[in-house]
């Protein structure tokens, strides 16, 4: 069997965590701790497939006022009832999306050792989950976290100049879509229509290029990306047609059916707190695929770390906090227990 030099040593690290988990599980059983469910696998073998609400953004440009209002209402309803939705006619060309995926695939095909040591954009390359202490905290994936403030710095990109050119066009387009949607959602809550624009821009937001290599383990056994919520205001996701994204809906996992003509939008923790739970930041995950690699690109609309998050109506469900404080608490939780707790820590 040939070893792909571009792939990180995911299997080696997963097996080490699995052995550790099994030992701890065995120890718990020996102590008759029948309530310990820490080591159970969370991927359900049978999951219903869903089609997310699909919203045609061309309705926002309609000459018909009723159609504009209906489009806005559909966005707000989806954010409230689902926390996830899809948008089409979003203004980002098919050619740009195709170019971005091609550049992304070329980047991930670089040998693993080079990805680790190349220093592109100050070493944003991540793989697996370095803080995992058990097998069910491990993600079968690799990613580049790209701060958008570095796009203009040509020296940081090394040989990846064509990737820089693609991102230089792609990132502003994603910012435009994300701020449009976030502004509509904010205005629905009673905020000024420029509130989001003042809080979030390219200097505070970032992108993540994701690659989920095919996994020799059963998809019921391992996560491509562990269950989580996003810590931003809003996330825009461009994914391929392999599938694997699942979200929590009505207390059960449902699989999202890929749509080649749409971008996926999901509400982040900050918007849930800001809206006093009017909008929902929904837990989601990616399941590993045994046969096919999966690629996606996520754009995270974030404010500066000093931005104060406070509910738009009183009484607020959450205490006042800054984005920086929220990020710090998440990092501390991950270090101590292997996963984020998120908004429940800030409930009043």
Automatic annotation (TrEMBL):
Stored PROSITE patterns: FE2OG_OXY
Entry keywords, A to Z: Iron, Metal-binding, Oxidoreductase
Gene3D superfamilies per the UniProt record, alphabetical: B-lactam Antibiotic, Isopenicillin N Synthase, Chain
Domain Fe2OG dioxygenase: 203-303
InterPro entries the record matches: DIOX_N (IPR026992), IPNS-like_FE2OG_OXY (IPR044861), IPNS-like_sf (IPR027443), Iron_ascorbate_oxido_reductase (IPR050231), Oxoglu/Fe-dep_dioxygenase_dom (IPR005123)
UniProt keyword annotation of Iron present: yes
Pfam families with a match to the protein in the record: 2OG-FeII_Oxy, DIOX_N
Membrane-spanning residues: none
Keyword Transport: no
SUPFAM superfamilies reported in the protein's UniProt record: Clavaminate synthase-like
Family: Belongs to the iron/ascorbate-dependent oxidoreductase family.
Protein name in the entry: Fe2OG dioxygenase domain-containing protein
């Amino acid at each position: 069997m040939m070893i792909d030099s571009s792939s990180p040593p995911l299997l080696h690290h997963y097996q080490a965590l699995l052995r550790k988990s099994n030992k701890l599980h065995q120890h718990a059983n020996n102590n008759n701790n029948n309530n310990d469910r820490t080591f159970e696998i969370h991927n359900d073998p049978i999951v219903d497939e869903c089609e997310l609400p699909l919203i045609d953004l061309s309705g926002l440009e309609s000459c018909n006022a009723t159609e504009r209002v209906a489009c806005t209402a559909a966005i707000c309803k989806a954010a409230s009832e689902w926390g996830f939705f899809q948008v089409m006619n979003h203004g980002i060309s098919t050619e740009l999306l195709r170019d971005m995926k091609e550049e992304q695939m070329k980047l991930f095909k670089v040998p693993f050792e080079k990805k680790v040591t190349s220093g592109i954009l100050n070493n944003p390359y991540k793989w697996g989950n370095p803080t995992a202490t058990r097998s069910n905290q491990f993600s079968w994936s690799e990613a580049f976290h790209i701060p958008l403030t570095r796009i203009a710095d040509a020296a940081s990109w090394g040989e990846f100049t064509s990737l820089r050119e693609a991102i230089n066009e792609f990132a502003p387009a994603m910012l435009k879509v994300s701020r449009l949607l976030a502004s509509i959602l904010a205005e629905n809550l009673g905020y000024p229509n420029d509130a989001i624009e003042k809080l979030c821009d390219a200097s505070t937001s970032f992108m993540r290029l994701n690659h989920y290599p095919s996994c020799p383990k059963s998809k019921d056994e391992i996560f491509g990306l562990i269950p989580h919520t996003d810590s931003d205001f809003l996330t825009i996701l461009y994914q391929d047609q392999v599938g694997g994204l699942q979200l929590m809906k009505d207390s059960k996992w449902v699989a999202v059916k890929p749509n080649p003509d749409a971008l996926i939008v999901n509400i982040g923790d900050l918007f849930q707190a800001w809206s006093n739970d009017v909008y929902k930041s929904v837990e989601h995950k990616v399941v590993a695929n045994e046969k096919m690699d999966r690629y996606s690109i996520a754009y995270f609309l974030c404010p500066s770390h000093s931005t104060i998050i406070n509910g738009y109506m009183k009484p607020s469900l959450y205490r006042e906090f800054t984005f920086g404080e929220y990020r710090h608490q998440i990092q501390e939780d991950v270090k101590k227990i292997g996963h984020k707790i998120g908004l429940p820590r800030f409930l009043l």
